[in-house]
Specification:
The structure holds two protein chains of two kinds. By secondary structure, chain A is an all-beta fold. Chain A contains no helices and eleven strands. Chain B is mainly β. In chain B, strands 2, 4, 5, 6, 9, 10 and 11 form a seven-stranded mixed beta sheet that branches. In chain B, strands 1-3-8-7 form a four-stranded antiparallel beta sheet, with no helix packed on it. The chains are: A mainly beta, B mainly beta. At the A-B interface, strand 4 and strand 5 of A face strand 5, strand 9 and strand 10 of B.
């Protein structure tokens, strides 16, 4: 099955700095890679996603890059703000009726004001 | 995006009793729903995949007789924790696959405390 590795587990940055979270996956058939943000005690919220036919996608301060050959994808947050502090999860899934995403272990991002 | 609602948000129960958690897709039909368990500061652990009209598929190590899943309609799946014990205390969260298939949406989650 799919295996998703996520690094780092904890990331501490100063407000205004950039933050990068990296994930690798093992199943070359995976073609959909969402990123979720989870605040303490709340549900994970989809913040951005990318499909395998695209190498990069950007939405304001958030961007995701995908390298299919190396089987890794990254989340980039620029101009970080304290409200960006949360746990971020990457996931990978393959096409098909029995879609089941595999999640990374999560990255706790702390943005210091 | 699609809306998934989970109820209750918080529940406290006594050891030995059963607790039911509901997961509803409010504005779309979800043929597949997923149930996760999350421990503090840890990732989402998939417990089972719930398919409408058929038996749920449980992940290895998850007791199907303890965690009963029913997906009787395209908008509702339920998780019943039977004979609850304190070690069952956790954050349980459901998700549903949208019409497109790939994108999934999470419920609010349910905090279960067994005393």
């Amino acid at each position: 099955g799919e295996n998703v590795e996520q690094h780092p587990s904890t990331l501490s940055v100063q407000e205004g700095d950039s933050a990068v979270i990296k994930c690798t996956y093992s199943d070359s058939a995976s073609n959909y890679f969402p990123w979720y943000k989870q605040e303490l005690g709340k549900r994970p919220q989809l913040i951005i996603d990318i499909r395998s036919n695209v190498g990069e996608k950007k939405d304001q301060r958030i961007a995701v890059t995908l390298n299919k050959t190396a089987k890794h994808f990254s989340l980039h947050i620029t101009e970080t703000q304290p409200e960006d502090s949360a746990v971020y999860f990457c996931a990978a899934s393959r096409p098909g009726g029995s879609y089941i995403p595999t999640f990374g272990r999560g990255t706790s991002l702390i943005v210091h004001p | 995006g699609a809306v998934v609602s989970q109820h209750p948000s918080w529940v406290i129960c006594k050891s030995g009793t059963s607790v039911k958690i509901e997961c509803r897709s409010l504005d779309f039909q979800a043929t597949t729903m997923f149930w996760y368990r999350q421990f503090p500061k840890q990732s989402l652990m998939l417990m089972a995949t719930s398919n409408e009209g058929s038996k749920a598929t449980y992940e290895q190590g998850v007791e199907k007789d303890k965690f009963l899943i029913n997906h009787a309609s395209l908008t509702l799946s339920t998780l019943t924790v039977t004979s609850a014990h304190p070690e069952d205390s956790s954050f349980y969260i459901c998700s549903a696959a949208g019409v497109s298939g790939n994108t999934i949406y999470f419920g609010e989650g349910s905090w279960l405390t067994v005393v």
